[in-house]
Amino acid sequence: MTYTAPDAATLDAMLSTVKYDASGLIAAIAQQHDTGEVLMIAWMNAEALRETLENGRVCYYSRSRKKLWRKGETSGQIQHLKEARLDCDADAVLLLVEQIGVACHTGRRSCFYRAFTPTGLVELTKPEIDPAKLYHTHG
């Protein structure tokens, strides 16, 4: 499955149906396209969604930094878009991606690595890479 960007008029028409929240954001769920593994949830503004759909490399909006966040720009853990889907209410996006490396800033493949159990939270997976190596930091 290779992503093909729509032409400008089609992209504009599709983006006009998206419903952003009061902050101008839409929830974006990233899922590994071939396994169905849910990797992460993040936020997109109109610019991030447009950029993602135009070039096929996933871009989010960082609420903490208040700027576009191109997945992998610091860590090298890139997401290539395979398909994007809009939910029934037009207020959430599902991104089917090819994840290069890990998706989580903790060094795990998925951000959803803890399960609620009767005895408390259980860690399901260990980091695959040291976060300090991902972000070239110490500690």
From TrEMBL:
Zn(2+) binds at C88, C104, C111. Pathway: Amino-acid biosynthesis; L-histidine biosynthesis; L-histidine from 5-phospho-alpha-D-ribose 1-diphosphate: step 2/9; Amino-acid biosynthesis; L-histidine biosynthesis; L-histidine from 5-phospho-alpha-D-ribose 1-diphosphate: step 3/9. Residues 40-113 form the Phosphoribosyl-AMP cyclohydrolase domain. One of its GO terms (cellular component) is cytoplasm. It is found in: Cytoplasm. Mg(2+) binds at D87, D89, D91. It holds the Pfam family PRA-CH. GO terms for molecular function: magnesium ion binding; phosphoribosyl-AMP cyclohydrolase activity; phosphoribosyl-ATP diphosphatase activity; zinc ion binding. Its main location: cytoplasm. Signal peptide: none annotated. Its EC number is 3.5.4.19. GO terms for biological process: L-histidine biosynthetic process. It comes from the Bacteria. Keywords: Amino-acid biosynthesis, Cytoplasm, Histidine biosynthesis, Hydrolase, Magnesium, Metal-binding, Zinc. InterPro entries: PRA-CH, PRib_AMP_CycHydrolase_dom, PRib_AMP_CycHydrolase_sf. Binds 1 Mg(2+) ion per subunit. It catalyses: 1-(5-phospho-beta-D-ribosyl)-5'-AMP + H2O = 1-(5-phospho-beta-D-ribosyl)-5-[(5-phospho-beta-D-ribosylamino)methylideneamino]imidazole-4-carboxamide; 1-(5-phospho-beta-D-ribosyl)-ATP + H2O = 1-(5-phospho-beta-D-ribosyl)-5'-AMP + diphosphate + H(+). Its cofactor is Mg(2+); Zn(2+). Catalyzes the hydrolysis of the adenine ring of phosphoribosyl-AMP. In the N-terminal section; belongs to the PRA-CH family. In the C-terminal section; belongs to the PRA-PH family. Homodimer. PANTHER family: HISTIDINE BIOSYNTHESIS BIFUNCTIONAL PROTEIN (PTHR42945), HISTIDINE BIOSYNTHESIS BIFUNCTIONAL PROTEIN HIS7 (PTHR42945:SF1). This is Phosphoribosyl-AMP cyclohydrolase. It comes from Acetobacter okinawensis.
